[in-house]
Amino acid sequence: MFDLDRKKYPKIDDGKANFELYSHKYLKLWHGPQHPGVTGNMALELTVSGDEIIDLKTHVGYLHRGFEKLMERRRFIQCFPIVCRICVPEPDTNEYLFSAAIEELAGIEIPEKAIWIRTLNLEMTRLASYLMWVGGQAGALGLGAVGQWAIAHRDYVLDLFEEMTGARVYHMYMVPGGVRGDFPQGFVHRLEAVLQKCEKLIKDAKIVMLNNSVLQDRLVGLGIITPEMIDKFGIVGPNARGSGAKRDVRKDNPYLKYNELDFEIVTETDGDGFARLKVRFREMSQSISLIRQIVSKMPKTGKFHVKTPNPLHWKIPVGETYLKAESTRGEYGFYVATDGSGFPRKVTVRGPSYTHAVSLLEYLGVGVNIADIAGLMGSLHTYPPEIER
Comparing 62 with 121, which gets the higher pLDDT? Predict the structure, then answer.
């Protein structure tokens, strides 16, 4: 328990400045950072009146931090283990953006096959990230079985990443010049087998979650985002699309091979936690469709990397650029500036979690029952290292 701000929460008795006189009306407590309903290592400082939240403050910094400053002291190739950790469940978006920024500044054009492989890699990591999210959202609402199913199927996708890149979580596979390797023999067949398993999971999870009257009671009307809030709070991704905004960087500012793929922007209009759940379920199925399209269109032969200078002695010309991509949480941006040396002059990352987990969550959390705060956090899908980067 904490002393309360006496100006913000007025006295309720004869004016004696004693915490016990406040405690039967106002109480401060921590939600997280070690809590199964917290999206990563993040904590919420809650002020409650009974079981209703009347004030909320987000605290981060319990996991990784300070990436941007660390990168100023690392050679470009040494930055890849750092950028991966900015978003643990979906590191490949960071790999792609940092690689693409270096390539633009150095004037490098990567091979056609490498572009297709990168596109496949990003949709695979999107599927893996969504599977992890489904598990977390289900667990936060008491559906432990779905959480077990989803995490198990994410492991099937990680098995494929291990084959493709040699690593399960942090891949460091997309590097300047292309990718580090081609597919192993039989990879496409094993990929299709995993996609079929994931389709079965999505079907089963929909039955258990979307048709669940208890879950609907808890998510319908929870954390409503109105269309007017989208630009005001800087809301992107499924959180915006759940409120009817047709915004997706893959469509609005196509990169890699997305302009050659057939898909539509997924939207719902209710703007609550249940609408965001439906958007993400539909986008999981969409990713499976996109992966199949990529595999069918990808060249069977060709180079996957072009020759680049020795990475330990590579000096990138002076310049600056900003590139963006669509992650599972929405628009993700990298600003990279160089000064002609072998080190980045400045790297700034625009992660969607910064606005979603701080200003938006602190706004939507007021008035929510304490039992529903984990469900609200899950519906916003945030990763704390993107905030304190």
Answer: 121
